[in-house]
Amino acid sequence: MTLARIPRIAFLVFSSVLLFGFIGSGGSDPSNSLTPQFTPTASAAQLADGDQSCSASSLRGTYAVPAQGTIVGQIPGFPPPPFPIGEAALVSFDGVGNLSGKTTINMRGVVLQLTFSGTCIVNSDCTTKTTVRSSLGFVVGDATILVRGAREFRDVQTDSFQVGTRNGVRIAD
User: Fold this and answer.
1) Sequence-ordered list of residues with C-beta below 8 angstroms from that of 29, at least 6 positions apart, any chain
2) Angle at 88 between CA 50 and CA 93, to 5 degrees
3) Closest CA to 134 of 153, 159, 115, 121
4) What global pTM score does this model have?
5) Over residues 16-24, mean pLDDT
6) Closest by CA position to 48, among listed 153, 131, 158
7) Element of type H or E holding 44
8) What angle do CA 3, 69, 26 make, to 5 degrees?
9) Every domain of the chain and the residues it spans
10) CA distances from 109 to 81, 83, 87 (A)
């Protein structure tokens, strides 16, 4: 698959949930733990292209998910913020609320390659709450809006130490 086949993506950040899971856990120091905070990010009025309602079966297939953002909170073992973060992930949803995937994250020149799995609760208004566990064992979450019949999603990282968004685009059913 070439990059030309992936539609333009304005924001990003689903797979960064993995890196942010590492960061948000405080690394090996539990006193530095940051807890993900979930906030509503959309209502049914914000759905695009005639989306009416969603369910777990709406979210299925493999999505390409690039991400970028800025670390704004101190991460143990890293220089003081702010600094950029970038990520590219593939995530697969099974249509019954489970997900898995792999990601490569670049955080101020430190590159991590991780796998992950998790669950996604899909609301009828096409908002979701996702919980992900990375191969490093860290658990994090995201708030997401499904759009265009769940062929795409818009996601926001809800941790207080990072500002970033991501768009997922379905590349395979």
Assistant:
1) 76
2) 50
3) 115
4) 0.70
5) 39
6) 153
7) none
8) 120
9) 9-172
10) 14, 10, 12
DSSP states of 94-157: ESSSEEEEEEEEEETTEEEEEEEEEEEEE-TTSEEEEEEEETTS-EEEEEEEEETTTTEEEEEE
Section 57-65 average pLDDT: 97
Residues pairing with 54 in the sheet: none
Distance between CA atoms of 18 and 37, rounded to whole angstroms? Answer: 15
Instruction: Give the pLDDT of residue 39.
Output: 39
Name the CATH architecture for the domain at 9-172. Answer: Beta Barrel (2.40)
In sequence order, the β-bridge partners of residue 65 are 89
Express each pLDDT in 74-104 by its tens digit.
877 777 899 998 999 999 999 999 999 999 9
